[in-house]
Design a protein that fits this description.
364 residues; mainly alpha; Rhopdopsin 7-helix transmembrane proteins; two-stranded antiparallel sheet; glycoprotein; receptor; PglndnF_rcpt; transmembrane
């Protein structure tokens, strides 16, 4: 009788009078599929990034590869740890009272959900800032953005995400088993305490802030690349510009589409003090949408590479009956070529060289 008031069972309150029911076979199927596809896709992306790092060892490329590798490794461990816990919960028939008497598993699950949710968003925004600096300020990027600095940024981002995930534990606030009894997170039902609202709003605000930074930096990067492309009036590097812009747009769209439903749902619950009309099925749908972001992230780097885009362009042009333009050799990476063109455009003599080209042609 008194055990229900103990701290170890603080997360079991939601198990009573729950109205959320999920089909066991379908839910197990979704969990296994998400975990398997996520692990395979991220492992493939890691192999591609490792080969790219061995092939291109330029300083300008190293920082991007380190950040991309950190993002993919984080997604991989997120699928591995969260997926394994979710499958174990389904295999145990969601009987939390039997295997989680001390609430340790729920706390670990909640910490992992918060950490592996925020860390990829933070890394995506850091990558967007790094690309923006590399394109707009190539000299500063080549001299200041060293591999050691990038590793320090990765460490700081991970430590900050860990701090946010451990904040409820440090404040002696237990993570709660959600209404579907399949995952743990902040308290989302009967939210009355200001601290519970604070955690939900903090998670949502940090997620939206990371998406906003990514959107802003990617927009600046894309506009800068287009301006340099039309200003230089050179065909060299045109394919690299299009490759870069396509990757930026894909990453930005995937993150916004996948994460916005979950962030909006959590923010609405925090603002409405748990009186939100969001049902358990709505929250589960938003959670699965967020999970797809970690699955699609590596495929952006796998599919939207220069070789794949070049072959896709040739196939599309052939199917449409268009003449395939003999594109320039893509012997340089997109970031290296963007830095080269941006540096030329920023140099004082670039305008003189461009103005002298028509005069020399007239003299001939």
């Amino acid at each position: 009788m008194n055990s229900s008031k103990s701290p170890g069972l603080a997360g079991f309150g939601v198990l009573k009078n729950t109205t959320c029911h999920t089909e066991k076979k379908i839910s197990v199927f979704f969990s296994i599929i998400f975990m398997t596809v996520g692990i395979l896709s991220n492992s493939l992306a890691i192999v591609i990034l490792m080969k790219a790092y061995q092939r291109f060892r330029q300083k300008s490329k190293a920082s991007f590869l380190l950040l991309a590798s950190g993002l993919v490794v984080t997604d991989l461990f997120g699928h591995l740890i969260n997926g394994a816990i979710a499958v174990f919960v389904y295999a145990s028939d969601k009987d939390w009272i039997r295997f989680n008497q001390s609430n340790i598993l729920c706390s670990v699950f909640g910490i992992c959900m918060v950490f592996f949710g925020l860390c990829p968003l933070f890394l995506g925004s850091v990558m967007a800032v790094e690309r923006c600096i590399g394109v707009t300020k190539p000299i500063f990027h080549s001299t200041k953005m060293t591999s050691r600095h990038v590793k320090m940024m990765l460490t700081m981002v991970c430590l900050f995400a860990v701090l946010i995930a451990l904040l409820p534990i440090l404040r002696f606030r237990a993570y709660q088993i959600q209404a579907s009894r399949t995952w743990c997170f902040y308290k989302t039902e009967h939210v009355e305490d200001w601290e519970d609202r604070f955690y939900l709003l903090l998670f949502s605000c940090l997620g939206f802030l990371a998406l906003a930074i990514s959107f802003l930096c990617n927009a600046v990067t894309g506009i800068t690349l287009l301006r340099v492309k039309f200003k230089s009036q050179q065909r060299q590097g045109r394919s690299h510009h299009f490759e870069m812009i396509i990757q930026l747009l894909a990453i930005m769209c995937v993150s916004c589409i996948c994460w916005s439903p979950f962030l909006v749902t959590m923010a609405r619950i925090g603002i409405n003090e748990g009186r939100s009309k969001d049902t358990c099925e709505t929250i589960l749908f938003a959670l699965r949408m967020a999970t797809w972001n970690q699955i699609l992230d590596p495929w952006v780097y796998i599919l939207l590479r220069k070789a794949v885009l070049r072959n896709l362009y040739k196939i599309t042009s052939g199917c449409c009956g268009m003449h395939v333009i003999n594109l320039h050799m893509w012997e340089l990476s997109s970031i290296k070529n963007s830095l080269k063109v941006a540096a030329i455009s920023e140099s004082p003599g670039s305008s003189k060289q461009i103005n002298l080209q028509p005069l020399s042609s007239m003299g001939q």
